[in-house]
Amino acid sequence: MYNNWDELKSACLTCTRCPLGDTRTNLVFGVGNERAEVMFVGEGPGEQEDLRGEPFVGRGGQLLDKYLGAIDLDRRENIYIANMVKCRPPGNRDPAQEEQDSCLPWLREQFRLLRPKIVVCLGRISAQRLISPDFKVTKEHGRFYEKNGVLMMGTLHPAALLRNPIQKPDALEDFLNLRDKIKEVCSNTYK
Ligand code: URA
Q1: Is the CB of 50 under 6 A from ligand 1?
Q2: Any ligand 1 atom below 6 A from CB of 106
Q3: pLDDT tens sequence across 22-56
Q4: How remote is the CA of residue 181 from the centroid of ligand 1, in Å?
Q5: For residue range 88-133, what is the model confidence (pLDDT) as tens digits?
Q6: HEC profile of the chain
Q7: Is 49's C-beta closer than 6 angstroms to any atom of ligand 1?
Q8: Rounded distance from Cα 154 to ligand 1 centre (Å)
Q9: Ligand 1 within 6 A of 110 CB?
């Protein structure tokens, strides 16, 4: 247990719980407002994220920023963004189960410090891990589930939208639903 974000980040920087730390360029800890009520969780850093040390800064990230902007959210102002794993899996492969298991305690600590009211899972990997192991993103995206007092929603991963642009209107609808839910349950996000 860590008392504050600085302690947590410093400890995470020296992590040796899995081999991904050996091949990464930068740790991708997370970005955003450390008091945000809304947290987004992706999968793991890609090449650009690894080079810059920030989540979602490649093409997928630019698309994510557009959806965020459409509902007046900004990665540096009123949300927090993290990933299931904090070091890049080589070649952009999916993070292995053991890598996710090793990294999950860091995410849990971020969760404990942030205490978000809403968590948005970006894509299958985080939705299946955080919402339910059999979560089907194509069928269940946009629905809110309550888990231990936190509202959780899964939506399409931005990289999947780049591959399959026909799904973009579905993603926009999820974000519009998210805006309504934020207005309902959060008091500081839209000030
Ligand atoms: N994909 C993710 O899931 N996370 C990132 O940070 C970048 C791409």
Answers
A1: no
A2: no
A3: 999 999 999 999 999 999 999 999 999 999 999 99
A4: 24
A5: 999 989 999 999 999 999 999 999 999 999 999 999 999 999 999 9
A6: CCCCHHHHHHHHHCCCCCCHHHHCCCCCCCEECCCCCEEEEECCCCHHHHHHCCCCCCHHHHHHHHHHHHCCCCCCCCCEEEECCCCCCHHHCCCCHHHHHHHHHHHHHHHHHHCCCEEEEECHHHHHHHCCCCCCHHHHCCCEEEECCEEEEEECCHHHHHHCHHHHHHHHHHHHHHHHHHHHHCCCCCC
A7: yes
A8: 15
A9: no
